[in-house]
Design brief:
- With 114 residues, the protein is mainly α.
- The chain folds into 2 domains: 43 residues, no CATH class; 70 residues.
- The chain has 3 helices and no strands.
């Protein structure tokens, strides 16, 4: 029964946050349009179009997966040299996975600036 309550609460939370985000954004834009303000901040120039969201997610997941794989390999190497397995594997997985995410951040930032 408890997992059902947790997942239901999580769903309600995500729905509520997304509902508030989109309704507030819509009201903001309508208010700007009604007052004849400049709404060009909502439109991107074709030359400055951001990469597609799915490309960003795939890049981040790919580099995270590479980092986790390298972390498992590094954990095995560290355990062969006498380091405790319970420490070697999680530490190396988190360190290299985080490094992969950091690399993906800088790659995406570079793609955004082009």
């Amino acid at each position: 029964m408890e997992p059902v309550i947790v997942f239901l609460s999580l769903f309600i939370l995500v729905f509520g946050i997304s509902y508030l985000f989109y309704t507030t954004r819509n009201k903001e834009r309508l208010a700007l349009i009604e007052r004849d303000k400049d709404v060009s901040i909502f439109m991107r120039e074709p030359s400055k179009r951001a990469p597609a969201a799915w490309k960003i997610v795939l890049l981040a997941l790919g580099l995270l997966s590479i980092g986790v794989g390298v972390g498992i390999l590094l954990g095995a190497i560290l355990s062969m040299f006498g380091m405790d397995e319970e420490v070697a594997y999680p530490a190396s997985i988190f360190l290299t996975g985080g490094t992969g995410l950091l690399v993906s951040f800088f790659v995406i930032k570079k793609l955004d600036n082009e």
